[in-house]
Amino acid sequence: MTENQNSNSNYQRNDRGRFNRPRSSKEWKLIEKMVMSSQDEHRKARRWGIFFKSLTFVYLFVMLMIFNPGMWDSGTVTASEPHVGLVDLKGMIMDDSEASADRLVSGLRDAFEAEHSKGVILRVNSPGGSPVQSGLVYREVQRLKQLHPEKKVYAVITDIGASGAYYISASADEIYADPASLVGSIGVVSDGFGFVGVMEKLGVERRVYTSGTNKAMLDPFQPEDPKQKEFFSSILSDVHQQFIDAVKEGRGDRIKDDDIVFSGLFWSGRQALELGLVDGLASPGQVAREIIGQEEIVDYTPRVSPLQAFTSRLGVSMADRLMATLGIGTISLK
Fold first, then answer.
1. CB-based contacts of 24: which residues, under 8 Å, 6+ apart?
2. Structural domain includes residue 164
3. Which residue among 148, 160, 201, 319 sits deepest, i.e. has the most Cβ atoms within 10 Å of its Cβ?
């Protein structure tokens, strides 16, 4: 073999028929090192991606547990040992809320009907809300007391038990509160806005068509009608009287017979005790141990899913903002 032929043997033919000079061992090592380095970076990136995804999942799981500790409950728990049944009345009282009549009544029925429950505690922390929902719960507690005369129900107010929340509390056999709790506010309110002056300044004309003389009553974009105002006031007075009657029925001669008690004012727990709005100052735990005589407490409060709670709050918030913007008021015990 000639020198030229030996030299050509170190070349390799490519797909175009041309010869390429082979790379040296150093070049191959460098290429191999770059490929390996790229693979290492890819593996690291994949590991970090898995780590952050896992971290996000753990974070969401922890937040879910914090905001909905009862999510793993399979329903109402019925203890096999003697205990006190607990139902939470928390937040605004309104339909489709955590403090709706349906949920509260469901929990109260389970607590009363539980074979081993020796009494029921209604733990109250609410500023009030719908008079209709409050009345429904009040009457159901009265019915359950008649069906289960051997079991007493105790309303225990924590931070606040006002207006509609106190309406419901009055159905209990006894009411307890913390010395610093806010208690009372026996009254009815409906609020809104009037935009007539603003419209006049802006030169905006209101056009509304009705087939009934009073169909557009309380329209915030029209001047207030004295007769319509008087009529609506009569509705508020009637609802207020229903509230007063329920409190007097529930509290009997324990409540001080004074108009100021039913004026819409609220008091601290200690002041409420003097007025007969509560029977004593105690926490839910104290009532269970010292009055009912049971250490174990079983929570019968129906739970809502985090998604339901979020959408409910979002819907209520949007509705409240819309009604406030339009000046449309609702009748509330708050």
1. none
2. yes
3. 160
Q: Are 303 and 70 in contact (CB under 8 A)?
A: yes
How far apart are alpha carbons 229 and 251 in whole angstroms?
33
- In angstroms, the CA 228 to CA 208 distance is 17
Whether 11 maps to a domain, the answer reads no
d(CA 254, CA 98): 31
Q: Give the range among 15-24, 130-139, 212-221 with minimum mean pLDDT.
A: 15-24
Residue 327 pLDDT grade (very low, low, confident, very high; cuts 50, 70, 90): very low
Is residue 141 exposed (0-12), middle (13-18) or buried (19+ Cβ within 10 Å)? buried
Alpha-helical regions (H) of the chain:
3-8, 25-67, 101-113, 131-147, 164-169, 196-202, 226-251, 269-275, 284-286, 306-326
Q: What is the pLDDT of residue 193?
A: 77
Per-residue pLDDT reduced to its tens digit, 12-66:
554 555 545 555 677 777 777 777 777 777 777 777 777 767 777 677 666 665 5
State how far the Cα of 52 lies from the Cα of 222, in Å rounded to an integer.
58
In this structure, is residue 231 part of a structural domain?
A: yes
Average pLDDT (213-221) is 81
pLDDT digits over 266-304, tens only?
999 999 999 999 999 999 999 999 999 999 999 999 976
Domain at 275, CATH number: 3.90.226.10
Handedness of CA 224, 226, 228, 232 (dihedral sign): positive
The rounded distance, in Å, linking the Cα atoms of 183 and 162 is 5
CA distances from 88 to 98, 169, 183, 195, 213 (A): 9, 12, 17, 40, 45
Task: Residue 94: name the closest of 268, 250, 281, 317 by CA.
Answer: 317
d(CA 13, CA 306): 69
Distance CA 293, CA 308 (A): 36
20 is a domain residue? no
Q: Which domain holds residue 121?
A: 83-326
